[in-house]
């Protein structure tokens, strides 16, 4: 049985679950990120982040509804996907929303395919024999050069800007930036710095990639990078054992002090999502509907209030 408040080590979280950060005192750093935001070390802060906006129309409208009518306060866009441009239209009347760029280097669905944003001749290593992006992160790292990955990351950020999105952060779909070559991470941080937005990393990434390859990261103040320290997201086991409502109820009732990134996936369980997520037993259409149902419910709102949980946003963090 999983613990009531499963804050997972990054290596145990499926790669899609990389987002949101907390800065801890590292090598003499005086204040935590929570304190820089004006909170105390004992405050429980939460970012409720919806992955994958832009994936489908169902994903887009459910995510927007959850952010304007529910408790969700962060999302990130998959620019290579067919429905990404719709997001620019949908958010025109909501310029305050936190929308990051979900750096996408893979295409994990069986019957819904996309290509890189950059032209094929510039990023051939990101394209499979079928003509679309690779199915998994391992294949990306085997085939795509660091230069190609940086070119594609930049193209995705620029594409988001062109449709009117002013990104509040960067993160990595399926964690492929982190599960690939260390040069991918250097380019990722470089682009975050260049565009003036935080790029998500974890303590594990700092130790196993950044500090293990110091020559690649000389331009960064490694000891003061913003770092994810608490991540929560439903696992397949918990989905089967507790259901979404049971999992989230336990998590919110047992949330620990600091900033927790709660990673969810929202869509309606309709014909579009059922076709898109075909043969995927998890993170599928019913899973995304369950996430939506909980975080637009009165129960979620009441649990957050009863546990004195304070919601914080990427926009606040980025302003620091």
Automatic annotation (TrEMBL):
GO BP terms, alphabetized: carbohydrate metabolic process
MF (Gene Ontology): deacetylase activity; hydrolase activity; metal ion binding
Cofactor(s) the protein needs: Mg(2+)
Pfam families for this protein: YdjC (PF04794)
Keywords annotated in UniProt: Carbohydrate metabolism, Hydrolase, Magnesium, Metal-binding
Name assigned to this protein: ChbG/HpnK family deacetylase
Provenance organism: Rhodonellum psychrophilum GCM71 = DSM 17998
High-level lineage: Bacteria, Pseudomonadati, Bacteroidota, Cytophagia, Cytophagales
């Amino acid at each position: 049985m999983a613990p009531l408040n499963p804050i997972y080590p990054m290596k145990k979280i499926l790669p899609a679950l990389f987002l949101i950060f907390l800065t801890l005192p590292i090598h003499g750093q005086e204040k935590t990120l929570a304190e820089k935001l004006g909170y105390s070390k004992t405050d429980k802060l939460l970012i409720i982040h919806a992955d994958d906006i832009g994936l489908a129309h169902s994903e887009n409208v459910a995510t927007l509804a959850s952010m304007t009518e529910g408790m969700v306060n962060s999302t990130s866009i998959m620019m290579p996907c067919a429905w990404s441009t719709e997001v620019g239209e949908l958010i025109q009347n909501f310029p305050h929303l936190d929308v990051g760029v979900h750096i996408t280097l893979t295409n994990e669905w069986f019957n819904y395919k996309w290509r890189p944003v950059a032209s094929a001749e510039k990023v051939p290593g990101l394209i499979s024999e079928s003509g679309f992006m690779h199915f998994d992160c391992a294949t990306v790292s085997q085939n795509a050069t660091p230069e190609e990955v940086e070119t594609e990351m930049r193209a995705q950020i620029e594409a988001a800007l062109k449709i009117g999105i002013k990104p509040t952060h960067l993160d990595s779909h399926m964690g492929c930036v982190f599960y690939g070559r260390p040069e991918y991470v250097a380019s990722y941080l470089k682009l975050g710095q260049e565009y003036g937005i935080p790029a998500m990393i974890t303590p594990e990434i700092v130790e196993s990639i950044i500090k293990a390859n110091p020559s690649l990261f000389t331009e960064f103040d490694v000891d003061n990078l913003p770092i994810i320290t608490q991540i929560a997201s439903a696992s397949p086991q918990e989905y089967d054992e507790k259901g979404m409502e049971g999992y989230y109820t336990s998590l919110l009732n047992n949330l620990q002090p600091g900033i927790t990134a709660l990673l969810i996936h929202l869509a309606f369980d309709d014909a579009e999502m059922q076709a898109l997520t075909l043969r995927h037993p998890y993170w599928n259409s019913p899973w995304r509907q369950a996430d939506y149902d909980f975080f637009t419910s009165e129960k979620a709102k009441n649990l957050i209030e009863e546990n004195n949980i304070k919601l914080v946003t990427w926009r606040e963090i980025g302003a620091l």
